[in-house]
Amino acid sequence: MLVSTLPALQLIYDTAPIGLACLSPDCRYLLINQRLTEICGISIEGHLGRTVRDCVPALADSVEQIVRSIVATGEPVIGIEVAGQRADQVEERSWVTYWHPLRMPDGEIVAVNVAAEEITERKRAEREIRSARDAAETALRHLRDIQDTLIEAEKLAALGRMVAGVAHEINTPLGSSLTVASTLQRKAEQFAAEVARGNLKRSTLTGFLELVSDASAQLVTNLGRAAERVQSFKQVAADQTESLRRSFDAGELTGQVLSQFERQLRVRDIAFSLHCESNLAMDSYPGPFGQVLTNLAVNAMTHAFSDGETGTINVSLRAVNDDHVELLFADDGCGMAPDVERRAFDPFFTTRRHDGASGLGLHIVHSIVVDRLGGQIRLESLPGAGTRFQLILPRMAPDRR
Questions:
Q1: What pLDDT, on a 0 to 100 scale, did the predictor assign at position 1?
Q2: Pick from 199, 364, 222, 213: which is nearest to 298 by CA?
Q3: Disulfide: which of 323, 349, 361, 381 matches 295 by Cβ 3.0-4.6 Å?
C-alpha cells in the first residue's frame, strides 16, 4: 500500500505523542504506532494486515460504522470517545478519537487516518469534579434547609416580640377599663343603696348620671384602643404566618406593623417618626412586606442603638410613580464600617453573634425585597452617621410561581 512507503508519514507515526493508525476501507490496519497499540496491548506487527474486529473486537462495530460513514460521505468524524480495559490492566483507560479520510490525487478515499489522544487523567479529574460538585450540592441543599429553618425561627422570634409589644399595648387600656368599671360598680352599689333607703337626692342622681356618662366614654375609648390593637395584631400575624397575596394600603400596614415596637422604642428612649402618604394601594404580599419592616426595626434597635444608646428612627413611604412606592428607613445610630456595609446582606453575617444575633435579619430583608416583592434595596451607611435603607417596591408584585 502506498501509505506504508511514505517516509514522512512513517516518521510522524513513530514520533507522535498520540496514538495514530491508518485503516483500509475494510477496517484493516495499514499503519499503527506504538502509542495506539496500548489500547489493546497487541504489538505493531500484530496489528498490521489484521482487522479491527480481530484486534479489538469490543470496538469493531463502532469503528466499522465510522469508516463506512467516512467512505460514503467523505466527511471526517471527530471527538468520538473510546473506553476500554485491557485484561492486563486494572484501571479503565479512555481516549478521544479523530477520523479523517485519506484521498488519492483523484479524490478517491483509499484509507482512514485515526488519531487517538488518551484522556484517562482528564476523565478521572472529571469524575472527581463531579463527585466534589455532588458533595457541594448536597451540602448546599443541607445549608439551605438549615437556612430555611433559621428563617422560620427568625419569623417566629419576630412574631414573639410583636406579641410582647401587643400584650403591653393591650394591657394598658384594659387595665384602665378595669379600674373605671370597678369604680362604676362601686358607685352603682352606693346609688342602689340610697334608692333602697328612699332618700335619693337630685344631686346624687345627677352626679351618678355624670359618672356613668364619663365612665362609659372612658370604657368605649379604652376598649376601642384594645380592640384596634387586637385587630391590627391579628391581621399582621395572619399576614406574616400565611404570606398570602392580597390588596392592601401600604401606609396603613406600615403603621400597623411598626406600632408593635412603640413600647420598646419608648423604653429605650428612641424617638420614632413615621410619614406615609395616603392611598398607597398595593397588590402584593403583606406578610413579607411586614417582615421587612419588622427586621429593619429590630436591626436598628440591635445594631444602630446598641448598649443603651439613644437616637431617632425615621420612616417614610411615598409614591415614586403610578407603579412603584419608595420606603425609606433611616436611623442616626452608630452606622457601619465599609467592610460591614459590604457584607450586610450576606447570610449568617453579624457583628453581634455573642449577643445571640443570627445574621439572617438583613439577608431575609434582601431576599424578600428582591425575590418575593420584586423590588430593589439600597443601603447607605457611615460610621457615626447612621444607616439608611431605600426600598423601591412595585405596587403590583410579580407572580412567583
A1: 46
A2: 364
A3: 361
**pLDDT band at 225, cuts 50/70/90?**
confident
Could you tell me if 268 and 301 are in contact, meaning their C-beta atoms sit under 8 angstroms apart?
Answer: yes
Pick from 10, 103, 15, 99: nearest CA to 63 = 99
Mapped onto helix, strand or coil, the DSSP state of residue 270 is strand
Per the CB < 8 A criterion, the answer to whether 352 and 336 are in contact is: no
CA atoms lying within 13 Å on the CB side of residue 80: 17
Is pLDDT above 50 for 174? yes
Residue type, 324: H
Q: Which residue has the cell 470496538?
A: 59
pLDDT tens digits for 14-35? Answer: 777 888 989 999 999 998 888 8
Identify the residue whose cell numbers are 399595648: 169
Dihedral Cα 156, 162, 165, 168, nearest 10 deg: -80
How confident is the model over 52-111, as pLDDT tens digits? Answer: 999 888 888 989 999 999 999 999 999 888 876 565 666 778 889 999 999 988 888 999
Q: State the first-to-last Cα distance of the chain, in angstroms, to the nearest integer.
A: 68
Question: Three-class SS of residue 96?
Answer: strand
> Which residue pairs from 271-276 have beta carbons closer than 8 angstroms and sit at least 24 positions apart in sequence?
271/310, 271/311, 271/312, 271/313, 272/312, 272/313, 272/315, 273/312, 273/313, 273/314, 273/315, 274/315, 274/316, 275/314, 275/315, 275/316, 275/317, 276/250, 276/251, 276/252, 276/316, 276/317, 276/318
Closest CA to 243 of 182, 291, 278: 291
Cβ neighbours for 374, distance < 8 A, ≥ 6 positions apart? 393, 394, 397, 398
Cβ atoms within 10 Å of 15's Cβ, excluding its own: 8
Distances 55 to 36, 70, 82, 155 between C-alpha atoms, Å: 12, 21, 15, 69
Q: How far apart, in whole angstroms, are the C-alpha atoms of residue 297 and residue 262? A: 11
